[in-house]
Amino acid sequence: MINKKGRLFTASISIVGALLVCLSFYSCNKKEQKGGDMVQEYAVTTLNSSNVELKSSYPAVIKGKQDIEIRPQISGTITRLCVDEGSVVHKGQTLFIIDPVQYQEAVNAAQAAVNVAKSNVATAQLTAENKRELAKNNIIGSYDLQMAENSLLSSKATLAQTKAQLISAKKNLSFTRVSSPSNGVVGSIPFRVGSLASPGTVTPLTTVSDISDMYAYFSMTERQLLSLTSEGNSSKEILKKMSNVELQMIDGSIYGETGKVETMSGVIDQSTGSVSIRAKFSNKNRILRSGGTGSVLIPYKMDNCILIPQKATYEIQDKKYVYIVDSKSTVKSIPIEVFSLDDGQNYVVTSGLKVGDKIVAEGVGTLKDGMQIKEITPEQAAAKKAQAQQSADKPSK
Fold first, then answer.
1. Residue 150 dihedral angles phi and psi, to the nearest 5°
2. 3-class SS at 207?
3. How large is the greatest C-alpha to C-alpha distance in the chain, in angstroms?
4. How far apart are CA 16 and CA 274, in angstroms?
5. Phi-psi bin for 363: left (phi > 0), alpha (psi -120 to 50), beta?
6. What's the pTM value of the predicted model, to 2 decimals?
7. pLDDT at 352
8. Domains annotated on the chain, with CATH
9. Is 328 exposed, middle or buried (0-12, 13-18, 19+ CB in 10 A)?
């Protein structure tokens, strides 16, 4: 009886011991799993100072060096178009011909009037000479001589007048051939053969644009201008110190030639608070067209500044924050201020961080103040992502 109870007691102790061992192992395993879940890996970067060049963008309108509206100086019907839209023309080249018949007849009439006036002058000249001889011999009085002299002067004045009318008629006849005042490219032509052209017409016959060089017109606020030209004393010095600018086309591509800011308005527009600026770009290959649009990119250089990835930040009520990492690998969020310009990937920090600080470079959306992390480098984080992607891309067997 005693032996049976002893065996039961011993068995009970063994079972209890086994249960305690299992519970202890399970508890330790849970702690390890819990600890493993808490300490996660995050890419951490140590901040250094660097020199950066940012680019500020300003919408611009592109115009030719000269955009000259071609207007007729006489009225008449267009009888011939000598060029087509988009044609490259040279100075003095004929663009349109206006019916010259009436103007040629005006020249003929003016020429006839000149011939008559010349004959009258010759007659008056003979009469005046004859009167002078008669006056010397006291055959006629001074009155008759003066009348002859006055008639000669009147005939000469009439001749001068008819000559002026002839010049005007010939000038009008030359205006029947509308020519280009400069080298350039012809714009749209709203008038065709048979259309009536007139100096009073609102719409020009066409526009000739000199596009050997192009001007990009853009505006900059007073504050932006001061930030770029704080070291300059005069407009000439400011323009001289400004770096070459780039032109971003409407499709996002960068134009192959850099430009130079040539002029800026001396007066700030009170309605917009901005200054009008003009940059010049060479257009040897005639890629740019007058009337186009784009953006002027102005470089802004900053020395010894702190650069951080944009993905290392998060925003709350228009304020930017980062997670800083202390010596115990514990994170804490702090507010920062950044420069107004950025390159789309990084921010330039103006306050809140210093050289040597460590921040979490990515994945900040899963962090909380006081969390402890396992620090890895951004390169290690990138390698692990690549490895995970490769594993995911492998076909399953």
1. -65, -40
2. strand
3. 194
4. 86
5. left
6. 0.59
7. 93
8. 40-51+303-388 (2.40.420.20), 57-64+211-302 (2.40.30.170), 75-99+176-203 (2.40.50.100), 101-173 (1.10.287)
9. exposed
Q: What is the dihedral of CA 232, 235, 238, 239, to 10 degrees?
A: -170
Q: Tabulate helix, strand, coil % of the chain (nearest 5).
A: 35, 35, 30
- Dist. CA 192–CA 196, nearest whole Å: 9
- Which H/E stretch holds residue 356? none
List, in sequence order, the alpha helices (H) in the chain: 2-38, 101-136, 142-174, 222-228, 235-241, 378-393
Length of the chain in terms of residues written: 397
Per DSSP, the three-state class of 308 is strand
Three-class SS state of 26: helix
Q: What's residue 234's pLDDT?
A: 61
Report the alpha-carbon distance of residue 118 to residue 42 in Å, rounded: 105
In order along the chain (397 residues), what is the average pLDDT of each group of 10 residues? 47 48 44 54 92 88 89 95 92 95 96 96 93 88 90 95 96 95 91 93 91 90 66 64 87 92 78 84 88 89 89 92 94 92 86 93 91 91 85 68
Of the candidates 127, 58, 86, the residue with the CA atom closest to the CA atom of residue 278: 58
Closest alpha carbon to 159 in 120, 203, 109, 105: 120
Which residues lie closer than 8 Å to 357 by C-beta, 6 or more apart? 46, 47, 324
What is the residue whose two structure tokens read 């493993």? 36
List, as one string, the DSSP characters of 259-280.
BEEEEE-SS-BTTTTEEEEEEE
- The pLDDT value given to residue 161: 96
Handedness of CA 288, 290, 293, 298 (dihedral sign): positive
Burial code (b: 16+ CB inside 10 Å, e: under 16) for 138-153 equals eebeeeebeebeebbe
Specify the pLDDT at position 387.
85
> Mutual orientation of helices 101-136 and 142-174 as an angle, nearest 10°?
160
Check residue 244 and report its DSSP letter: P
Q: Which distant-in-sequence residues (6+ apart) come within 8 Å of 244 by Cβ?
A: 258, 259, 260
